Input
Amino acid sequence: MYWAIGYDENWNRDIGYDVPATCDHPGCKNAINRGVDHVCGGEPYGGESCCGLYFCKDHLELKTLSAGDEPAPVCHQCASGEKPFEPTPDTQEWVDYKQTSIYWAGWRTYHQNKAASQ
Output
């Protein structure tokens, strides 16, 4: 399945391979996308045991989450059992795209308050 664009209600933000982003590790400026290749837990929304934030390859490590499972990419916080980092804001590129693209016109109409605040 190709996760081009979706929405994560836990973090209140757009996700998917077509969403340009910055790594969620504090201070990291690496450009990524919010596809499953970058998500902590290796599954949309992080699966059952991870935070579901998005990280560059420098800030993910492979860890076996359950006996018998394949290792999954996990952030330092989840690997250590600590609370998640704060997510980084949307990139200006993504904000501008949502505010100007004809493909998001219906969304802008339906979400006028949200679109204006971004």
